[in-house]
Amino acid sequence: MLATASTLSLSYAAPAAPAGASLRHARPAAAPPLMETKADLEALAKDLNPAVGFWDPLALSDYSFWGTSQEATIGFLREAEIKHGRIAMAGFVGYIVHSNDIRWTFDKVAASVPTGLPAPAVWDAIPDIAKWQIILFVGVMESWRENKVVLEAEGQKHYMSGGKPGYFPSFDLLPHPVPFPLFDPFGISKRATEEKKAKGRLAEINNGPPPIGRLAMIGLFGFLSEATVPGSVPFLKGVVPAYTGEVMAPFTQNIFTAPTAL
């Protein structure tokens, strides 16, 4: 499944942008949109992992989600895997950071959480308002990435309309300056050759080098598995502290199942 998701993985509407608005991180006009097909996925799968090749046990690449097209669905799945791989990378590092009681000295919320807790218990211990702040921030970032006006201002298309999966627009349309774009904050890709960019896109969703993307998803679940069921991941036995809470709590107790619980 991970193979497909990653195979599927490299490559709303708001008011119109003001005429003549200048972009602080202006980008050249994008090439005409290119909708990837299943044949493209099969070729990409071999580049990612020749030993496994194209593996799509649920036949997701054959579907047409929400009455769109097979190509639009492939764009959605490719974006989804890149996004989940990036989140897993952050989660993998975050798990290690919190398991080792590494805190910013100026972060009073983090300082209020007792030390010596397993990483999932750190999340349980932070105030609900802090959790909602994180969730709200993620929602804002998601809305910005999906906004057609923002994308078109940079010569890009939505990933379900032939746009580049994994692309995150700059914040140039915001009324206040933002120091750097999230997609390429240090401008590294601007100096890279097309060949190097292509290799980087493959490395991000595969397992490296360095180990990222798919491997980060496996690694994060390995941490959670060993913490919840000690000994389930022999390599991590005695390394990852046990967690006695409910890792699936967001799905078993939330504002939909227990509105008064939060």
From TrEMBL:
GO terms for cellular component: chloroplast; membrane. Keywords: Chlorophyll, Chloroplast, Chromophore, Photosynthesis, Plastid. Pfam families: Chloroa_b-bind. Chlorophyll a binds at W55, E81, H84, E204, N207, R214. Its main location: plastid. It comes from the Eukaryota. One of its GO terms (molecular function) is chlorophyll binding. One of its GO terms (biological process) is photosynthesis, light harvesting. This is Light harvesting protein. The keyword DNA repair does not apply. The keyword Chloroplast applies. Chlorophyll b binds at S61, R86. It is found in: Plastid, Chloroplast. InterPro entries: Chloro_AB-bd_pln (IPR001344), Chloroa_b-bind (IPR022796). SUPFAM superfamilies: Chlorophyll a-b binding protein.
